[in-house]
C-alpha cells in the first residue's frame, strides 16, 4: 500500500515520469532473458554487427582510428560501411563505457535504443491527447510488435527505427514553439537518425519531411511575424546541425558504394524481399506461414513477413472511429493512415507498381534491395493507431472489459492451436497468454480501480508478446562470440599468427566453417580473406572473389579457382580453416597444404607456398591499363623476384613505366611497424627497388618516403607497389578517409564526362 501510495503521488506531480517508469518496468519484463544475459541477440546481430561495434570501440579505446578494418575481406574500409555504426552516437558511447564490451553489453545497447524510442512514442501519443493506457499500449506495440520484435538481428535498422519517434517528437516540440534551441535539438535527433544509412532511415526521413511540411502549413497561420522568423532560424539551425552530423557517414559510404560490388541494385534484386499481400495474414495469426514452428512456407524471409502486434491491440483498433471524432487525433489518424497505405504498397515491391515507379526516378532507391523494410513504417503507424484507439476504451466498463478479454482469450487460444512441432521454443509457452487472459477476465470481474484494470491489461499484452513475438529465435540466440573466444582452433590460430610472423601477419581463408568465423575474427586479431557484409570492394570481388557470409559456398574466379591459387599465396593465406562436421562433404587438401591442427568442429591446414605480406622483387613486368596477365602466365610468375604492374588508369601507367626502368635493385627491409591504418617500413638499398605489400590497392591509401609523397602503383592485379629510392629511408603507408572520398568524386566526374 505504501508503494502504491508513492506511485499515486508521483503520478499526480509528474505524470509523464510515472508513465515512463511503468514503461521501463514493462520493457524489463519483455526483454528479461536478453537483459539478464541468458541469451544474446541472434543471427546477424551476433555474427556481423557485434564484432563491428566491438572493433570500433576497442580501436578507439586503444587510441587507434577505426577507419580501416584489416581482419575481414583482406582489408575493409570500416569508416565507410553504411551499417558500420561508427557514427551512431549513443551506441558507440555505450560500447566505450567498458574495456571489453561483450555481446550481452551490446544487446543492452540495442534494447536501450528501443526503450528510448518507446518513451518518445509515449510522449508523442500523450501530445495527441492519448490517455495513459492508450499511450502505454502504443509504446508497447512500437517496442515489441511485428518486425520490431522479429528483426532484432538487423541492428542498424533497429537503431534507425528507435530514433524515428524521437525526431518526430522533437519536430512537434519545435513546431509548437519555434526557436533556435528547439531547432538544434531537432537537428541533433535528425542527425543521429541519419547516421544509420539503411533504407529504414531513408523511409522515415521521407515520412518526417512530409509530416513537417503538412504540420508547418497548419501551424503557419497561427504564427505571428516574430515566431515565423524564429521558425526560419530554427529550421536553418536544424538542417545545418543534422547535415554536420550525418554528412561524414554519408560521404564515406557513398565513396565506398561507388567502388563496391553494389554501386546500384537492379530492380530484379528486390524480388525476393517483395511481400505479396497475403503476407499481412500474419497480423492475425502469428504462425500463419509457420514462422514460429514447422517448416516455413511464407513469402520472403520469415522475419520480414512477420506483422503480429498482439490480439488485444488489434481489437483496440475498433476504437479508431472514436479517435477520428477527436480533432487533434483525426489529423494523426489521417496522416499515419496514408503512411500505412504507402508502406504496404512499398512492401509489396514488385507485386505492385509503386516500388518500380519509385525505383525509376527517386534518388536512393536503387541502393536498397528490401522493399519489406517499409514494414517498420507500418508497425510505427499501427503503434499510433493502437495508442489512439485504446485511449477511448472504457476502462470503467465491466461489460467492455469482459468482451475484450473473452475475445482476446479466444484469439490467443486459437493462435496457440496453430503452433505445431514440439521442437519449437514457442510450443511450450504458447498457451500461457490465453490462460493469462482467462485469469485477467476472472480477476477483473471484481470491482477495482482503473489503475488495477490497466495493470492487468498491460501485463496481458506482455504475456502475449512473451509467448509469440519474444520467445525464440527471432530475438535471442547463443553467444557465439564468447564461444569463438574460447574455441581451440581460434586459440591455435591466434597463437600462431601472433608469434613468429612479425608485424604483418599472414591471413586465413575459411571454407565450410560456421558463420562465426566471418567477422568474429576481429575479436582475436585474426586477418581473414572472408567476412560477413553485403558490400565488398569491387576489385577484390572481381579477382579474388568473396562471399556475403560463411553460409555460402566458396566463390571461385579465374585467378582464384582454388585455395592453392597464386592469388591466395600472394594474399599470404597461410592457414585454411575448414569445417569437419558430419555435414561437411569429403575433401582433399590442395597441393602445398599440410595438416596443422584439428579442433572440435574445424581443421586447420598450413599453406607452405604462401608468400610473405611484404615482397621486394627486382623486375617489373608492365601491362596496359585495364589489362591483366593471362591466368597461367600469372600463376607461373616467381613473385619473389618479379611483379606485374597492372595500372589502374593511364596516369598510373605513365608513372609506372618510368618506375619499371629505374627500380631494378633489391630493397632491404630493416623493420616494419603497423596498426590498422598505418604501416611504417624502414628500408636500405644500394639502388632504387620495389616494395610490394599484399594489401588492397584501395583509394585513400597514401605513401611517403621520409615525408615526401610517392605514388602507389597497382601491382599483381589488386595490390600496392612502391618504388623506393636508394639509401636509408622511412616509408609510411597510411589510410586517409577523405582522400578516399576525393578519389571517388574524381572518378564520378570522369565517368560523368564520358560520352554515352
UniProtKB/TrEMBL annotation:
InterPro entries per the UniProt record, alphabetical: Uncharacterised_YfhO (IPR018580)
Keyword flag Transmembrane helix: yes
Top-level taxon of the source organism: Bacteria
Record's keyword terms, sorted: Membrane, Transmembrane, Transmembrane helix
Residue intervals passing through the bilayer: 16-36, 105-125, 132-149, 155-172, 179-195, 201-220, 232-257, 305-326, 333-354, 374-393, 400-420
PANTHER family in the cross-refs: INTEGRAL MEMBRANE PROTEIN, INTEGRAL MEMBRANE PROTEIN-RELATED
Protein name per its UniProtKB record: YfhO family protein
Origin species: Rhodanobacter glycinis
Classification lineage: Bacteria, Pseudomonadati, Pseudomonadota, Gammaproteobacteria, Lysobacterales
Amino acid at each position: 500500500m505504501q508503494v502504491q501510495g508513492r506511485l499515486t503521488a508521483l503520478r499526480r506531480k509528474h505524470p509523464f515520469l510515472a508513465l515512463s517508469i511503468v514503461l521501463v518496468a514493462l520493457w524489463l519484463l519483455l526483454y528479461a532473458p536478453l537483459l539478464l544475459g541468458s541469451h544474446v541477440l541472434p543471427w546477424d546481430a551476433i555474427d556481423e554487427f557485434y564484432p563491428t561495434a566491438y572493433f570500433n570501440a576497442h580501436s578507439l579505446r586503444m587510441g587507434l582510428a577505426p577507419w580501416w578494418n584489416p581482419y575481414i575481406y583482406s582489408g575493409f574500409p570500416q569508416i565507410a560501411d553504411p551499417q558500420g555504426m561508427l557514427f551512431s552516437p549513443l551506441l558507440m558511447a555505450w560500447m566505450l563505457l567498458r574495456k571489453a564490451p561483450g555481446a550481452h553489453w551490446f544487446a543492452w545497447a540495442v534494447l536501450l535504443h528501443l526503450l528510448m524510442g518507446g518513451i518518445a512514442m509515449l510522449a508523442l501519443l500523450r501530445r495527441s491527447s492519448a490517455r495513459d493506457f492508450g499511450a502505454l499500449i502504443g509504446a508497447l506495440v512500437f517496442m515489441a510488435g511485428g518486425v520490431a520484435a522479429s528483426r532484432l538481428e538487423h541492428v542498424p535498422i533497429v537503431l534507425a527505427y528507435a530514433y524515428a519517434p524521437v525526431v518526430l517528437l522533437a519536430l512537434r516540440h519545435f513546431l509548437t514553439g519555434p526557436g533556435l534551441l528547439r531547432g538544434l535539438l531537432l537537428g541533433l535527433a535528425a542527425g543521429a537518425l541519419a547516421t544509420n544509412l539503411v533504407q529504414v532511415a531513408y523511409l522515415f526521413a521521407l515520412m518526417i519531411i512530409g509530416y513537417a511540411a503538412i504540420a508547418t502549413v497548419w501551424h503557419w497561420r497561427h504564427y505571428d511575424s516574430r515566431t515565423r522568423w524564429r521558425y526560419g532560424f530554427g529550421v536553418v539551425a536544424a538542417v545545418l546541425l543534422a547535415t554536420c552530423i550525418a554528412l561524414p557517414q554519408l560521404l564515406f559510404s557513398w565513396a565506398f558504394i561507388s567502388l563496391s560490388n553494389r554501386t546500384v541494385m537492379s530492380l530484379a534484386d528486390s524480388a525476393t524481399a517483395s511481400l505479396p499481400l497475403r503476407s499481412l495474414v500474419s497480423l492475425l495469426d502469428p504462425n500463419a506461414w509457420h514462422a514460429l514452428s514447422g517448416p516455413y512456407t511464407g513469402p520472403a524471409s520469415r522475419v520480414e513477413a512477420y506483422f503480429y502486434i498482439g490480439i488485444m491491440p488489434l481489437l483496440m483498433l475498433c476504437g479508431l472511429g472514436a479517435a477520428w471524432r477527436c480533432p487533434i487525433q483525426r489529423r494523426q489518424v489521417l496522416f499515419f493512415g496514408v503512411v500505412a497505405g504507402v508502406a504496404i504498397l512499398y512492401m509489396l515491391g514488385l507485386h505492385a507498381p509503386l516500388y518500380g515507379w519509385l525505383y525509376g526516378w527517386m534518388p536512393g532507391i536503387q541502393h536498397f534491395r528490401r522493399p519489406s523494410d517499409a514494414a517498420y513504417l507500418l508497425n510505427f503507424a499501427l503503434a499510433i493507431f493502437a495508442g489512439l484507439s485504446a485511449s477511448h476504451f472504457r476502462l470503467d466498463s465491466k461489460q467492455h472489459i469482459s468482451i475484450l478479454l473473452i475475445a482476446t482469450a479466444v484469439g490467443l487460444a486459437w493462435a496457440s492451436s496453430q503452433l505445431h512441432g514440439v521442437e519449437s521454443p514457442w510450443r511450450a509457452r504458447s498457451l500461457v497468454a490465453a490462460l493469462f487472459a482467462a485469469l485477467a477476465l476472472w480477476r477483473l470481474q471484481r470491482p477495482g480501480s482503473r489503475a488495477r484494470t490497466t495493470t492487468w491489461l498491460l501485463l496481458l499484452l506482455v504475456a502475449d508478446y512473451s509467448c509469440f513475438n519474444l520467445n525464440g529465435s527471432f530475438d535471442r540466440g547463443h553467444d557465439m562470440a564468447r564461444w569463438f573466444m574460447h574455441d581451440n582452433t581460434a586459440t591455435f590460430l591466434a597463437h600462431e599468427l601472433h608469434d613468429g610472423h612479425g608485424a604483418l601477419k599472414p591471413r586465413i581463408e575459411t571454407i565450410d566453417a560456421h558463420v562465426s568465423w566471418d567477422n568474429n575474427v576481429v575479436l582475436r586479431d585474426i586477418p581473414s580473406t572472408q567476412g560477413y557484409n553485403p558490400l565488398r570492394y569491387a576489385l577484390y570481388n572481381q579477382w579474388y572473389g568473396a562471399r556475403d557470409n560463411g553460409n555460402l559456398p566458396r566463390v571461385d574466379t579465374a585467378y582464384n579457382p582454388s585455395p592453392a591459387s597464386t592469388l591466395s599465396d600472394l594474399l599470404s593465406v597461410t592457414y585454411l580453416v575448414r569445417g569437419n562436421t558430419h555435414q561437411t562433404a569429403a575433401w582433399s587438401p590442395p597441393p602445398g597444404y599440410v595438416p596443422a591442427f584439428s579442433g572440435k568442429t574445424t581443421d586447420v591446414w598450413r599453406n607452405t607456398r604462401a608468400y610473405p605480406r611484404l615482397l621486394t622483387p627486382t623486375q617489373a613486368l608492365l601491362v596496359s591499363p585495364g589489362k591483366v596477365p593471362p591466368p597461367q602466365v600469372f600463376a607461373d610468375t616467381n613473385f619473389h623476384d618479379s611483379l606485374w604492374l597492372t595500372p589502374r588508369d593511364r596516369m598510373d601507367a605513365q608513372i609506372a613505366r618510368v618506375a619499371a626502368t629505374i627500380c631494378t635493385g633489391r630493397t632491404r627491409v630493416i623493420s616494419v611497424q603497423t596498426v590498422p591504418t598505418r604501416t611504417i617500413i624502414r628500408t636500405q638499398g644500394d639502388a632504387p627497388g620495389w616494395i610490394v605489400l599484399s594489401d588492397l590497392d584501395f583509394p585513400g591509401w597514401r605513401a611517403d618516403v621520409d615525408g615526401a609523397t610517392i605514388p602507389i602503383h597497382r601491382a599483381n592485379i589488386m595490390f600496392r607497389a612502391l618504388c623506393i629510392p636508394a639509401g636509408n629511408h622511412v616509408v609510411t603507408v597510411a589510410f586517409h578517409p577523405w582522400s578516399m572520398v576525393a578519389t571517388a568524386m574524381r572518378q564520378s566526374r570522369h565517368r560523368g564526362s564520358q560520352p554515352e
